[in-house]
């Protein structure tokens, strides 16, 4: 097989450098970029830059491109919809793609009973909408969130988000009535440290918070990522999620799951909460929902989604017809091509390599994931779990020079995550993993 990667170092090339200089001059310095790639086009799992270098993409737009870059059928759906109706605004009137997508999501989300949907533009906007629904439904103010959580960068979602220095420093004051508890992060669990038997002692932290911090009768919602994304690709134990469900039931708390990064086949299920068998009340989605078009959704129990007063929810662009057409086609592709099964295969292949690397390189402390949502956590050495924050930066840089696009992850910024497009071929996956190991080898010394 011909390799996909084709790069001519030194990178970035001259045309890329010129555009990067313009970016530095014209764009806010506060917007981080993982690599210096300047994309001209992308198809499937491959990205070609303006100098003609072709990279393999192990980021998929941070989990946005589960159906790959520019799938022909989605491109055609976008073209066709744009020719008919680019925009109307769902506050002005109705158009079928919005309604067809809501029907599709209501059918797809495994919650029993009647379901409804509201569409918006971004993950953050959808999270805010879910909080509004929960508050309107319960008449209560408080929200429980997690250490390591990422729910967005708007003020309310930033208040829910963790990782202070990178995301929040200098941006307060934050929204009130938010209570944060430790996430079941077994590798760094102060109780079991991933070594012995997990007794779910971390669940007691949550129970205690309902005594020490806030009365459960004032809690509108608990929001959780069943697999923490920015926090480092940490799957919560299924038993933990089931206990959370029972606790929410006991106190009438709305359970919101944030599936923005983990949803749409990434973990081998439509939504990552499905692995645990729980039924949340509201599901927040974005990213891969619309194959790269800006679109987000809240789907959940009809009585909660309907709780805000008439006119209480709205958005100028939310549920734009072109984005809805892309989403309908993307979902059709995921179903038809069984991308859930493919994600599981990709996860198995990837984890087999990661486990081998963990034995080989002492700077790899933990490898983990669910389906094709996989990550490596770097530490100082075999018996020293101190986060190694330098290693991921160097691994990402070395991989870029060799034609692989990567991005970090982790509460301590000491991880590298892989979110390959689920349409990647086995050859491309092995090629990219080969480059990743080479990069780790260089950094491990
Ligand atoms: N929730 C999760 C779990 C996310 O990963 C993200 C984005 N990384 C968001 C919410 C925010 O989504 P957006 O950037 O579309 O606002």
Topology:
Elements: H1 14-26, E1 39-43, E2 46-49, E3 54-57, H2 60-63, H3 72-84, H4 96-108, E4 115-120, H5 123-138, E5 142-146, H6 155-160, H7 164-167, E6 178-181, H8 201-212, E7 219-224, E8 227-228, E9 234-235, H9 238-251, E10 254-258, E11 282-285, E12 296-301, H10 302-305, H11 321-336, H12 339-360, E13 364-370, E14 373-381, E15 384-387, H13 390-401, E16 404-405, E17 407-409, E18 415-418, H14 426-444
Parallel strand pairs: 3-16, 5-6, 5-7, 7-10, 10-11
Antiparallel strand pairs: 1-2, 2-3, 4-12, 8-9, 11-12, 13-14, 14-15, 14-18, 17-18
Helix pairs in contact: 3-11, 4-11, 12-14, 13-14
Question: Explain this structure to me?
Answer:
The protein has 445 residues and is an alpha/beta fold. It folds into 2 domains: 73-336, Type I PLP-dependent aspartate aminotransferase-like (Major domain) (Aspartate Aminotransferase, domain 2), CATH 3.40.640.10; 338-388, no CATH class. The chain is 38% helix and 18% strand. It is built from 14 helices and 18 strands. A 7-stranded mixed beta sheet has the order 4-12-11-10-7-5-6, sandwiched between helices. Strands 13, 14, 15, 17 and 18 form a 5-stranded antiparallel beta sheet that branches. Strand 1 (39-43) and strand 2 (46-49) form a beta hairpin. Helix 3 runs antiparallel to helix 11 and helix 12 runs parallel beside helix 14 (426-444). The longest helix has 22 residues, at 339-360. The radius of gyration is 22 Å and the shape is globular. The structure holds 4'-deoxy-4'-aminopyridoxal-5'-phosphate. 4'-deoxy-4'-aminopyridoxal-5'-phosphate binds next to helix 5. Residues 62, 122-124, 127, 150-152, 225, 229-230, 258, 260-261, 286 line the site of 4'-deoxy-4'-aminopyridoxal-5'-phosphate.
